[in-house]
């Protein structure tokens, strides 16, 4: 090979290596001892000290000391085989878990005594139903979404008190459109009946804004916006959506059957979700979850081939690691085999606020 061509080839290799190299220094997930081998898909950090995780075989875990120790919670009676895809907590005593599955395998349980006892709050009685995500804005304002039934995404809301009621303005769905229960984050809630849903499936990916959020008018229909994510089959689309304020948000996804494909894995918005733009440098593979990490002032996205961060609101992404992850709620992420990792804000070389 001529010297010039050889030198050019070496330069291209060096550039490629730089683009795919994890962040140098101390930015690494600190692995936790979960005392579990469950496939963990639910994680919610209530504050710097308290976090809850959930997963297969009725598994529910919690920590009250920032991850130094994880406790296995009592499993709700009759829930030993349920797959708890979602968890939402307020402190060490109060939390809600969501199981996902066909028909009555989709349920909601609540504890008020630190997971010693659980009360069933809701159960899906439609054999065609499948619940995907459960997210709260505060302890009295929550939204639960499920796959479409009779042409609309099944949507239950809780407003100012206990009890779940059907949202009469549930978003219409296209044939072949569905939500993903991969990480309890295909839904983001701003307030009472103000929410955003990320969708996928054969019909292609979309972001749906509830009428009150999109128009401040409950008499209108949901606003559907397209997103530049992977499309074309049941395994592709938008898997997770999150916002850091009313305008700036990120949606991630891809094709979970092609985890190493970087194209079509993320998009960002600066106008509240009305328009979405693909990043100039995307995450390095399919991403099942994304979240804003305020203490480090970065976005974190995770998936089954690793994790990435963005410091510019999703316009470019930088490789963090090549591990296997399912869900994220900074500073924690969870994955298969009982895996829990913690990402200290100081390891990202950004002074916490």
CATH class: Mainly Beta
Low-confidence region ranges: 1-21
Biggest sheet record: 5 strands, antiparallel
CATH topology: Methylamine Dehydrogenase, Chain H
What is the chains' assembly state?
single chain
Task: Give structural notes.
There is one protein chain. The protein has one domain: Methylamine Dehydrogenase, Chain H (7 Propeller). With 353 residues, the chain is mainly beta. The termini are far apart. Strands 14, 15, 16, 17 and 18 form a five-stranded antiparallel beta sheet that branches. Strands 1-28-27-26 form a four-stranded antiparallel beta sheet, with no helix packed on it. Residues 1-21 have low confidence and may be disordered. It contains two helices and 28 strands.
């Amino acid at each position: 090979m001529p010297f010039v061509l050889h030198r050019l080839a070496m330069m291209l290799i060096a550039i490629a290596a730089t683009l795919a190299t994890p962040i140098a220094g101390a930015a690494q997930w600190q692995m936790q001892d979960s005392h579990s081998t469950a496939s963990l898909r639910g994680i919610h950090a209530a504050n710097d000290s308290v976090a809850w995780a959930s997963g297969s075989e009725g598994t529910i875990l919690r920590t009250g000391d920032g991850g130094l120790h994880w406790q296995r919670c009592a499993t709700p009676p009759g829930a030993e085989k349920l797959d708890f895809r979602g968890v939402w907590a307020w402190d060490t005593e109060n939390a809600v878990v969501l199981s996902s599955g066909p028909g009555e395998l989709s349920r909601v349980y609540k504890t008020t005594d630190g997971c010693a006892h659980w009360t069933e709050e809701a159960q899906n009685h439609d054999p065609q139903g499948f619940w995907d995500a459960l997210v709260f804005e505060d302890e009295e304002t929550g939204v639960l979404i499920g796959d479409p039934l009779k042409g609309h995404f099944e949507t239950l809301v809780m407003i100012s008190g206990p009890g779940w009621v059907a949202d009469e303005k549930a978003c219409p769905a296209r044939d072949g459109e569905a939500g993903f229960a991969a990480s309890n984050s295909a839904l983001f809630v701003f307030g009472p009946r103000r929410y955003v849903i990320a969708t996928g499936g054969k019909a292609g990916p979309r972001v749906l804004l509830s009428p009150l959020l999109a128009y401040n008018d409950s008499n209108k229909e949901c606003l559907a916006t397209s997103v530049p994510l992977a499309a074309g089959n049941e395994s592709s689309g938008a898997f997770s959506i999150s916002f850091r304020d009313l305008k700036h948000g990120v949606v991630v996804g891809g094709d979970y059957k092609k985890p190493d494909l970087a194209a079509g894995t993320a998009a960002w918005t600066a106008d509240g979700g009305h328009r979405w733009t693909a990043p100039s440098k995307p995450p390095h593979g399919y991403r099942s979850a994304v979240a804003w990490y305020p203490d480090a002032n970065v976005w974190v996205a995770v998936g089954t081939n690793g994790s990435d961060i963005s410091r510019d609101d999703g316009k470019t992404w930088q490789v963090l690691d090549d591990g296997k992850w399912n869900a994220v709620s900074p500073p924690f992420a969870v994955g298969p085999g009982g895996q829990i990792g913690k990402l200290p804000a100081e390891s990202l070389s950004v002074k916490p606020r």
